Structures are given as structure tokens and as C-alpha cells.
Amino acid sequence: xxxxxxxxxxxxxxxxxxxxxxxxxxxxxxxxxxxxxxxxxxxxxxxxxxxxxxxxxxxxxxxxxxxxxxxxxxxxxxxxxxxxxxxxxxxxxxxxxxxxxxxxxxxxxxxxxxxxxxxxxxxxxxxxxxxxxxxxxxxxxxxxxxxxxxxxxxx
Length: 155
What we know:
Strand order of the largest sheet: 6-1-2-3-4-5-7-9-8
Structural class: alpha+beta
Largest sheet: 9 strands, mixed
Distance between the termini: 6 Å
Helix content: 25-40%
Number of strands: 9
Order of helices and strands: EEHEEEEHEHEEH
Low-confidence stretches: none
């Protein structure tokens, strides 16, 4: 799994790992948009880091809905310096979405689905960049579209 440094096109290997208690001291609302401490006990929490480094570039909160064969991305955050036109790295959100997809597929196989409830201003971005389908309040990926995102970002 890699992200790309925008200015040089250099590829960097990244890993996604469970968030540990000690990580919360590195996470600020200013840099990662949400109060991630509130998610403990509600969601499964993960961090994206460059392999061998400690700086958290992305965060993911997932809730599993086994009866629906679905994992919902409750929160997804890319560090502030990696947002917008002046971002340092490209591909952080894609890796996190694909990671959620791979988790769903490993548990639910061909019935797997991931979903999220986007902020209004991000709705069209998720649909155009990641191929998400409109499902009312939620956007989702399943089947071949889910497989395509996993292949694009995790191989």
C-alpha cells in the first residue's frame, strides 16, 4: 500500500494499524478534524502511517453491521496538511477506504459492503473519486466497485 508525494511523485509505503491508547496524545482536533477519543468503545479505530514512522497521516473509525454484511465508515480523517490543492501526499483517504473494504470482504466475501454518511460538501467527491453509489443518506461500495477500490489502493 502506497501514497504519493505530490511535488516529487515519490511513492511511500504506508501501513494501517489499530489505534493505540498512546496515539491519542498525537491526535489533535485541529489536525484531524474530530474528537477521536469519543470514538473509543463505539468504533474500531485505525491509523495510517508511513512505514517506519510515527506521524499519523490518516484516521479511520469503522462500525461493523453483521446482519447487513456491511461495515460503516463512521469517521475518516486525513491530516490537515494533506487536504486540498496544496496537500503533501495523495492517496491517504483512498487507502483508508480500501482498507475498510478489504476488512468487509474478508468477513463477508461477495456480500460485503462498506458505507459512509458524508458531509454535504464531500458527497460528490466520494462519488466521483471513489465510485461510491448513492443510497439515500449514505453512500456505499459493493461488488465489483468495491473490488476495484481495493485493487487500486491496496496492491
